[in-house]
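Limitations
The structure tokens in this dataset are predictions for the assembled complex, not deposited experimental models. Users should treat interface geometry with appropriate caution, especially where small molecules or nucleic acid strands are included. An illustrative entry is reproduced here so readers can see what is and is not provided.
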Amino acid sequence: MSTLINLLTYVAIIAGVVFFVAGTTGLLRFPDTLTRLHALTKADNLGLGLIVLGLLPQVDGVLNGLKLVAIWLLVMLSSADAGQLIARAARRRGGPV
Amino acid sequence: MIIDAFYAAPALLILALGVYTTIVRDTFPATVGYLAYGLLLTVAWVQLHGVDVALTEAAIGGGLTSLLLVRASARLRATEVPARLERASLPVRGLAALGAGGIAGALALALLSLPDPAPTLAPAAMASIASTGVGNPITAVLMAYRAMDTMLEAIVLLLAIIGVWSLAPDRAWGGRPGPRYNADPDGILAFIARVLPPIGIIVGIYIFWVGADHPGGKFQGATIVAAMWLLTLMAGLTDAPPISGRWLRVLLVAGPAVFIAVGAVGAVLAGAFLGYPDGWAKPLILVIEFALMPSLALTLGLIMAGAPERIAST
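Predicted assembly:
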């Protein structure tokens, strides 16, 4: 049973890391600010979510699990907000966005 | 081998980022590099089991100082191009490289020639921890064994804020710090400035409260509370108070004043300045922390808000 739980943790964390790698590749290879923001927010939402999902079976106690989920929700909220603000600033600066 | 990679990867990243931050010519990329460097240092501190230090590095190094540097780099944007055209002569640059390399080499030599295992006072700190009433050895060191240093840190922050205020132009002395921020009241910045502060204030007070027995403390908590205030300030939801206000100055001084008062009481009752009479350690530490936390939050927030730029009546 615990091997199954560890396997789930490995799979979820590796999947999360794949999303982070994809986000970073997007940051480096995409042509302009808006598309790069798109790639980065995918990494934040889904990548971190998968990592949190993988860590949840390993915590001791419901409270620590809830804290992990709360961290993920706060990161999603702030990254969405920051993405909007950066996109608006990039558009306001003019020129090719 | 996985374990070695686990420890080696952040170390290599930190080195690479440090080199990049030093070499890059523009100010803003260097500031962003410094911010990422601070966050990687947080990871390194967690790996070394220094969670209190990691919290402080993330809050102050990755948050407060980086924000200060970003604002400074924004103000320096007009000087970027002329600054890039100036270059120090080769002998000066060579001397600077020699000096920096020499200091780094001396530090590395000192670190590598430490006896193994390195001498530590941790067992001595843990031996007397029951008499201080707190469970976290870091808090015991900061508030009981070396309370004098913490008091002097609080006073140094007061001096820092006087220094920041002294940058005000004459006409704005006593006025409100920073420009008037006007964000769209229906926009996303106003939205997050309404949603995040309640959560942030609870998290900040929790980190302050739990610092007695677990990693945490008033510095980290005060930084988070100050950051929430700054968020509402930058979204235009509140305006910075004029620095000539009486309650503002009383609140700024209250923390260090209570600290000094407790120290004087200790000098009378326990025979040493900042000594705690038997059995009174935990209550006195609580009194100091409750007085210091709002003062610290206000001080850090005002340092970030900047020098007064507008006269008080606007």
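Some entries come with short summary sentences. For this one: Chain B touches chain A at residues 188-189, 191-192, 195-196, 199 (CB under 8 Å).
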